Amino acid sequence: LLDCRTLHYRHVTLPARHVRLVVADTGVRRELATSSYNVRRDECRKGVELLRQHMPEIDALRDVPPHKFEQYRAMLPDVVARRCAHVIYENERVHAAAEALAVGDFGACGQLMNASHNSLRNDFEVSCRELDEMADIARSVPGVYGARMTGAGFGGCVVSLVRADAVP
């Protein structure tokens, strides 16, 4: 679990005797990822600028608690609000997933992975048809706790948390 601001990290154990991570490649190359990803970054920067009018103490979206975001969300343009929502709630999901893994709650971790993919698709809009279909297919397999796209989006891979005996 890496904090990219401070570079502080802690290892989160994946209990390999119980679960595995399965990575599946959609075969879709990310040709538009760089330019579209930069647009997403600009939209997030715009969100920070606007939110700073009410929360001058923030430097980045990671500094915005969800309840404060909801308090000011309506003042943001819709697209900017959705981009910000993804980042703010994704940070919460990552910490919750680490805690769920720590206590062996794979179902909760899987639900967080599913919510993450849904947010990447709907709020951050970096998914594609193939990623969505692959995540849906993975989620339909007995023993799969959750699945989400991984990487920059617009193609690439889906990572699934799978019960160890269900991997085949």
Task: Summarize the structure in words.
The protein has 5 helices and 3 strands. The radius of gyration is 17 Å and the shape is globular. The protein is 48% helix and 12% strand. The mean pLDDT is 94. By secondary structure, it is of the alpha+beta class.
Question: Can I get a quick summary?
Answer:
By secondary structure, this protein is of the alpha+beta class.
Task: Please specify the SSE layout and strand pairing.
Blueprint: E1 19-25, H1 33-52, H2 66-72, H3 78-102, H4 106-122, H5 129-140, E2 144-150, E3 157-163
Antiparallel strand pairs: 1-3, 2-3
Pick out its properties.
alpha+beta, 3 strands, 3-stranded antiparallel beta sheet, 168 residues
